[in-house]
Design a protein that fits this description.
The structure holds 2 protein chains of 2 kinds.
Chain A (H helix, E strand, L loop, with lengths): L1 H4 L25 H21 L7 H41 L4 H15 L3 H11 L3 E4 L2 E4 L2 H27 L2 H9 L4 H31 L11 H12 L5 H32 L1
Antiparallel strand pairs in A: 1-2
Helix pairs in contact in A: 2-10, 3-4, 3-6, 3-8, 3-9, 3-10, 4-6, 5-6, 6-8, 7-8, 8-10, 9-10
Chain B lengths: L11 E10 L2 E11 L4 E5 L6 H8 L7 E6 L2 E2 L7 H7 E4 L11 H11 L5 H14 L15 H13 L5 E5 L7 H16 L3 E5 L3 H7 L2 E6 L2 E6 L1 H6 L4 H10 L1
Parallel strand pairs in B: 3-8, 3-9, 6-7, 7-8
Antiparallel strand pairs in B: 1-2, 1-4, 4-5, 9-10
The chains are: A mainly alpha, B alpha/beta.
Amino acid sequence: MIASGGANLPVLKPFRLQPTGRDLTGAPFTTRNGLLLIFVLLLSACIGEAQAGPATPSILATILKWTPLLAQGFALNIAMSFLAMAIGTVLGLALGLGLVAVTRPVRAASWLITQFFRNAPWLVLLFYCILLMPFEVRIGGIIVPLPAWAKSTAGLALPVMANVAELVRGAVQSIPSGQWEAAEALAFTRLQTLRLVILPQCVKRMAPPWMNLYAIVVVGTPLASIVGVNEAMTLTGDVLSSEGRTELLVPMYLYLLTWFFIYCYPIARTTVALERRFQVS
Amino acid sequence: MASLWTTEQPLIRMRDVHKKFGATTVIDGISVDVMKGEVICIIGPSGAGKSTLLRCINALVPIDSGSILVEGQEVNDPKLDKLALRRKVGMVFQQYNLFPHRTALANIMMAPLHVLKRARAEVEAEARALMRKVRLDGKEDSYPGELSGGQQQRVAIARSLAMQPAVMLFDEVTAALDPETVKEVLVTIRELAEEGMTCIIVTHEMGFAREVADHIYFTDRGVVIEHGSPAEFFTNCRDERTRQFLSQIL
């Protein structure tokens, strides 16, 4: 922003970025940097190995032994992130439309809900969901149990909803007013205008920040370990306490970190690629 | 009201229309009659309220006082059925405002399909015919971004025509175009006029106005300074401001 607006804002000129030929914004997301990070993670495992006593099984063997269990936990993390994102997106879409509604009370209520959930710490929301939601609900004649992971997912879906609502509002407002005028002149209703003209154009604009939000949700799922959900973070803790070996501590958590990294990194890269592509067109 | 309207009465009858934006008066008592099949050109300096006047006719902009009757239907009425009004009034904009995510053909088909709820096959056949009419056959599957300004504007005209409106409003439709594509758009509008389409055209193309209009209105600061047939308007205008404007532009 500063670099492009520099000519019009002489005050900012001393801070103007010099073009270096390298794209600074893209630098953290090159494949080389990614491989480097994985290498560092492996290296730390080797250092831990060197610290281990002679009689105990090697760290690598221990990690491999527990990998199926951790994979199960990680699968729950992914499942929770998927569900939270899906629920949050559907609710956020509705809330976002509320933010651009014509009726003032609807707009005000949507604004209040959005601001509340956007500015509340995720952990607090998680606690509330765990504490306030019942352990089972009766739908018709069927009793549906609500396990902790389901409640946590709901807790994560709330901030997702608020953030998606803001994305929707921003995207809708970025569509030129001429599009609204043309649709109105063709006798579209407001709902038709949104559905047929405005929202389809918003999808493209919303895709990169939406994916970014998803990556944040994924790395946010270990928060559920605090409320006792058996996801990867909880299981790693369980493994460490059952092994009782301090030299495992750093490599195990780094191992877990690598899982998250490998999952989220391609998302981050795709986001950057999408942003670049949409900028050009 | 609408049922009482006959073709002997003006298709559009504006009486003493007033419109303010905040403290700025944009339209200060304009009265205009447009008969069915007539072509009206509104000319005048920028900021004279010409575009706003067009937007008042299809209720994109509500008026403060006065009366606008479209086929006998009062536009300045809180109970106005805006959608019914807009089905009768087509509008083409300076910036084309095509929907960039849909092809040219889809742009034309959208309103008949979703607003008029007509059958797809029938709508598509008509849309293709309209593309031929504006001489863009072969461009049906192009997206607006792949078309030139003049081509986009002709698609926009076809899109409005697809609703089979009683009157077409043209809001400086050539102002954003390259000089070489202005002509193709003007030719399209002239053909429409010759077919008997009622048109209200806001334009800065004096030669075109003279050629196509049945009646010319010169407006400045929200009022009609003078009006008349092109022949009398261009050869012996009475008002000093009109003369000044024409001398600058011709």
